[in-house]
Structure formats: C-alpha cells, structure tokens
Amino acid sequence: MDSKHIRNFSIIAHIDHGKSTLADRMLEITGAVQARDMKAQLLDAMELERERGITIKAHSVTIYYDYQGERYELNLIDTPGHVDFNYEVEKSMQACEGAILLVDAAQGVEAQTVANAFLAIEANLVILPVLNKVDLAHARPDEIAEEIETSLAIESTDALHVSAKTGKGVKEVLDRIVERIPPPEGDPNDPLRALIFDAVYDEFRGVIVYLRIVDGRLRKRDKVKFMSTGTIFEAVDIGRFVPKMTSCDELEAGEVGYFVSNIKTLGDVRVGDTVAMAGSKSVEMLPGYREPQHMVFADFYPTNPGDYEVMRDALETLALTDSSLTFEAVTSDALGFGYRCGFLGLLHMEIIQQRLEREHDLDMIQTAPSVTYQVLMKTGEEILVHSPGTLPPPDQFQELREPIARVSLLMPAEYIGPVMQISTDHRGVFIRQEHLSASRVQLVYDIPLAEIMYDFYDKLKSATRGFGTLNYDISGFKSDKLVKLNILVNGKEVDALSSIVHHSRADVRGRAVLKKLRKEIPRHMFEVRLQAAVGSKVLARENIAALRKDVTAKCYGGDITRKRKLLEKQKAGKRRMRQVGNVDIPQKAFLAVLGGDEK
C-alpha cells in the first residue's frame, strides 16, 4: 500500500481508562473481527492479562478503514497503563507517528496520563486527546478538558467525546486519526531498514520478530541481517496482524508486521535492533531504545536443585518476550543455586514470578525484593549493589547511597493532609504543589525508592479512598545513614532475609520482621532462635518453641527419678538436634520481609 494511506498510532492512558476497550470497538467498526469471534479485551491474549484485567504487553494490530472513498491501513499498538510497564509504552512509540491520549471523563488526568503524555511529546508524536466514558452519570468532560490543558499544555478544546463501551464517537476517532496523524516518511525504494520493536517465542516456529519497516521493502525469501549481532536469516514467512497473524508476500516502508525465520537461538534477536538486507553495507542503524533502568532486584531459587537448568531456559524465553527483564546466576548458603533478576517495579516482578510458575511449571523460592544501592569504596571506586548479601563490610566503604525517586502524586484536594503525612513518614522531601483544577492537586516529593517499595502505594490508596495515583522517575542517588539488617536463624545469617534500612528504622523493622517470621516458620523438633542484628549488636529476638513429645506418658506412679532421667535424655537429644538440625523456611517467610509496619 502507498505510504500516504498508512497511519501508525498507539493508545496511551492511565490504568483502567479504557485503552483495550477502545481498541475492541475499532476492530468491530472496521470489520477486522467478526461478531462471533469478538470478546472483551481481544488483544490481551495472555492468561494473566485476562485474569487481572490489565495490559502487560503492548499488542499491535492492522485494521483497514475507508475514509472519503479511499482505503487506509491503520497500524494500532495498544499499550499498558501501569508505571512498571512504561518501557513497553516507550518501545511502542518508536514505531508510531501519533498517539491517542485517552482520558477518563469522570476520573480526569491521572499520574500515568501525565507520564505517558510526556513520553509522547519527547518522541515528537502528534497527540490526539480523547475523553472516554462520557456516558457515565458523573462524567465532567469540559472540566477534564481544562485539566488536560492546565497539566499537559495540550490543546483540548476540540477533544473528542467517546464511550468505548457503547461505541459512541469511535468512528469520529478513526476519522481524526486519518486527518491529523501524518503518514510515515520512509521511501519504499531505499535500501531496507526495519526496527525490531518486540519479539515472542513460539515452540513450533521459533522466535517471531515484530518489525516496523522504516525504509525499503521486505519480501518472502529475502536474506536479511540483524545489524547489532551480524547474524543473517532468510525470511521464511512475513505477514501482518489483522488481528491474527496473516501471511503476506511483501511489507513496505511504514508498515508493521512480523518476520519468521526458524530462529532458535534467543541471543540472536535484540529488541531495538535494525534489520537490513544481507549484502548492504551503507545502511545506517536506527537509534533503537535506551536501556531499561532496573530498580528492583529479587533472587529466584528452584525448590528442586535439579530444576536449575529448566529455570535458566524459562528465564531466557521470558527475557526475549520481555526485553526489560535481566538475570544473572547467584549462589546462596541457605538456598543453593539460583538467579538474581532485575525488574522495573514490584508488579513487573510479580508478573514474572507468576509466568514462571504457570507457563513453565516451576516451583521456586523468591527472596524479598531490594533496590540498587551505590557504594563509594575507600579506594574511591563506586560500585552498585543489587542485594544486601553482596554489600561489602562497613570498614571497606565511605558512603552508602540509596536511589531517590521524584514522585508525582495526583489526588482530590481534600486528601492533601493525609498524603503529605504519609510522604513525610516515608522520609519524603517536599518539592512543589500544583493545582490542576479546583478539585485536583498534584504533589511532588523526593522519596527513597526503598520506602515506596514496601507499603507506600497501599497507604496512599487507603488515605485517598482509592482516588490517589502516583508516578515516579529515579532522579539519582543520595547518601544517608543506612545499615544492613541481618536476620539470624539459630545463629546462622540467612542472606536472603537480610535488608538495608535507615538506622532510625532498624529496631522497629527488625522486630516487625521477626514477629512475621515467627508466625510463618513452622515449629520443629527443636527450639528455633530468631534474631535481628546490625553488625554484632542484636536488636530483637524471638523464639519458636520446640514440638515436644510427652516422654513420661508411660510412667505412672513409681519413683520420680525415672521421669527425671527420661526428661534429661530428651533435653540432651533436643540440644544435639539444634546443633545439627536444619530449619525449614517456607516461601511465605521470605516474602514476610516485604510487609509493612506492624501496628
């Protein structure tokens, strides 16, 4: 198709503002899906997405639309709304010329609305503001349009009013996409240049690569080169998403599609790489993507040591479909061999854990997540520490620095007081306050990322009755009085339960963790001693009493010395058992370290 008749766009919004539902209505109106095949959130194919009702992966689809007697090819990319999947949104924007900024006409501008709009502005996309859910009784579209102009400086006087649920106004959205979003600039006669914006693994066809053709054209049986790895592959199959994968003979400049070439090695494909013809030498690489910034790390250990290789294969497969996941091999005295994985946030970590358990049938132990710390050694060298277990001894470094997040909190004006109190309690530093409208306020704080990880979001939702939202960006590292809190079980340090905390919180945090561990660790045949310590100083202690058998049950009457002899024998056995016995720590106990304050 002539590139003048192609439009590439993505839908961006906050969580639950109706991105996937709008995509459903577009598929219905253009006839891309028959009525019998239609279902809610059609593009959310992953089991976890349908179960949770959220979009985790960006999904692309090609639809055809007739406008003023001409046929247009619209390539739509539906993106996630959660802050943890911002990287998916950023990747999708590189394959587009425009974006629909969808805003809930009842809830208004939220934290991720602001974050995604700024990503689109940085990517130089044409932004079309659209107000969704105008059919709700408490919708206030005029007020929300004013909020968009105030907070984002985007002209929204002519913002379209739609209801993605009923289909009202969706045709007008399609018309405006054709009118306002520019066609792609690539020339089909230039040498081939294509951007890899995603990839999935299929056990029958190997790696399926998602491409946006920037220049030139790609035909079946063409031999192409992946420029960052230098590997050459033949295009066994190419096609479009309409919305199912459908083969075609050719993809031209501006089009979005897929590429299959029996690629078996996962390392051969890199998201953000440039694809060119095998013989061409003068092709310039496309900018690609910035590396994702991993701020949460957790260790995964297989419960069965024999599953170590299986876990590595599973993580490699997931890392291909999710380029923001990284992992490296680690060992632990308590848990054996495993992998340390880097995530963009806590929800991202939870999704990866569930996908490992469901899709790859792995039974594993996950340690409490930790953030990345920067350590200034006495030699002047700066190193990054991803887990408390790898922190050098205190006498070897000068400073321990923690990551600071610039947090934007959006909420109704009546909740300012409680939210300020929560932010201060979590060592937040006030930056500014902005009134987006008469009833909506944005607070900006600098808060240590470790404080946000544990229970900040839960407290924010409780204090604002569910109306508060947050978005954060890492602004840098800052030195503070941080200490390593060690958890000892029967005198042995369990590195997987250790954490780095502010010295003023070490005592309270240690007691809270021990109380939770006492509930989660089952009783053994010997007494289990739990301790929280900083260095050699023990801050708190809890005991888990031993299971005791009544050894004197068979003694009735007679001399007391016989009973004493049996009890002494039992005591000696318990003492010996405590020295050689292993304490079984269940998975729930490791996650107990994550819990909030004990009230």
Number of strands: 32
Derived structural class:
alpha+beta
Strand order within the widest beta sheet: 11-10-16-7-8-15-12-13
Q: In total, how many domains does the architecture comprise?
A: 5
The CATH architecture classification of the largest domain is 3-Layer(aba) Sandwich
Strand content: 25-35%
CATH first level of the largest domain: which class?
Alpha Beta
| Assembly category | single chain
C-alpha termini separation: 64 Å
Helix content: 25-40%
CATH homology superfamily name of the largest domain: P-loop containing nucleotide triphosphate hydrolases
**CATH fold description of the largest domain:** Rossmann fold
Report the major sheet.
Answer: 8 strands, antiparallel
Question: Your description of this structure?
Answer:
The protein has 599 residues and is an alpha+beta fold. The protein folds into five domains: 3-180, Rossmann fold; 193-277, Elongation Factor Tu (Ef-tu), domain 3 (Beta Barrel); 296-367, Elongation Factor G (Translational Gtpase), domain 3 (Alpha-Beta Plaits, 2-Layer Sandwich); 374-479, Alpha-Beta Plaits (2-Layer Sandwich); 483-592, Alpha-Beta Plaits (2-Layer Sandwich). It contains 13 helices and 32 strands. The strands form six sheets. Strands 11-10-16-7-8-15-12-13 form an eight-stranded antiparallel sheet, covered by helices on one side. Strands 2-3-1-4-5-6 form a six-stranded mixed sheet, with helices on both faces. The longest helix is centred in the last third of the chain and has 21 residues, at 560-580. It is globular and about 105 Å long. The termini are far apart. The model has no long low-confidence stretch (mean pLDDT 80).
